[in-house]
Design goal:
The protein is of the alpha+beta class and about 200 residues long. It has a single domain, classed as Aminopeptidase (3-Layer(aba) Sandwich). It contains 3 helices and 10 strands. The protein has a 7-stranded mixed β-sheet with strand order 1-2-3-4-6-7-9, sandwiched between helices. It has a 3-stranded mixed β-sheet with strand order 5-10-8, with no helix packed on it. The longest helix has 15 residues. It is globular, with a radius of gyration of 16 Å. The protein binds coenzyme A. Coenzyme A binds next to helix 1, strand 6 and helix 3.
């Protein structure tokens, strides 16, 4: 399934909070440029697809399908939150959140990812800004928590933890993370949205 064209398809973003700009001015955030975090818009689709492919291009653990996953989630109307980071009018980062299912029946949980920053803008705090704002949006939408598969060293700084008894089939425990917003941690097997199986 390709989505390099603009327009966003039929699905779109479920939790989009509209057109408002959000200026990242959080204290202590090492953002050196003027970064704007905002909801994705239909005109951003091509840039999101390209930057996602570029961000994961050289990552050895990637199977380079992340841009297809974002497109599939959008087409399915499964983007609970989808934010872009813009610097000087250029979309340089993106984050997606979509609902997961958990075998114990816990509802209201979302998966974080893919999250991408174009290589030349990495390590300037943009990924962190996207993650923090995305988690804030999820909470505001009433989500119970968030989980992800990701870099071991990166996600604990946002409060994510490896949780005994909460897992994803085929994923090593040390790279599977969860963050509960209400304190209650589910137990069981997590499944991401079917869009994560998209291959093209
Ligand atoms: C991961 C990513 C979204 C982080 O965004 P960012 O804007 O570069 O990150 P920030 O500036 O907010 O934070 C920097 C931290 O990211 C972490 N980080 C970035 N890339 C990493 C990687 N490949 N492995 C482990 N940690 C990484 C580092 O801990 C770094 O901390 P440091 O500056 O102390 O070294 C971005 O680097 C990216 O797009 N990478 C390629 C795609 C990817 O790996 N996506 C996430 C899959 S889990």
């Amino acid at each position: 399934m390709g989505c390099a064209g603009e327009g966003g398809g039929e699905g779109g973003v479920r939790g989009g909070a509209g057109d408002g700009w959000l200026f990242m001015e959080e204290e202590g955030l090492p953002v050196q440029d003027s970064v704007r975090i905002r909801d994705e818009r239909p005109a951003d689709v091509r840039a999101i697809t390209e930057l996602t492919a570029a961000a994961f291009k050289t990552l050895a653990i990637s199977d380079h399908t992340e841009q297809f996953i974002v497109c599939a989630l959008r087409a399915a109307g499964a983007l609970a939150v989808s934010l872009v980071a813009e610097v000087d009018g250029r979309v340089v980062g993106h984050i997606a959140f979509s609902p997961v299912t958990i075998s114990d029946g816990s509802g209201g949980w979302d998966g974080l990812g893919p999250v991408s920053v174009v290589p030349e803008y990495q390590r300037r705090g943009i990924g962190s800004a996207l993650i923090r704002e995305g988690l804030k949006r999820l909470k505001a939408l009433g989500a119970q928590g968030c989980c992800l598969v990701g870099h071991r060293e990166y996600y604990p700084r946002f409060g994510f933890k490896n949780v005994t008894g909460l897992s994803h089939a085929g994923v090593p425990a040390e790279v599977f993370f969860a963050l509960s917003f209400g304190g209650r941690m589910p137990q069981g097997a997590v499944e991401f949205h079917a869009g994560f199986k998209a291959k093209g």
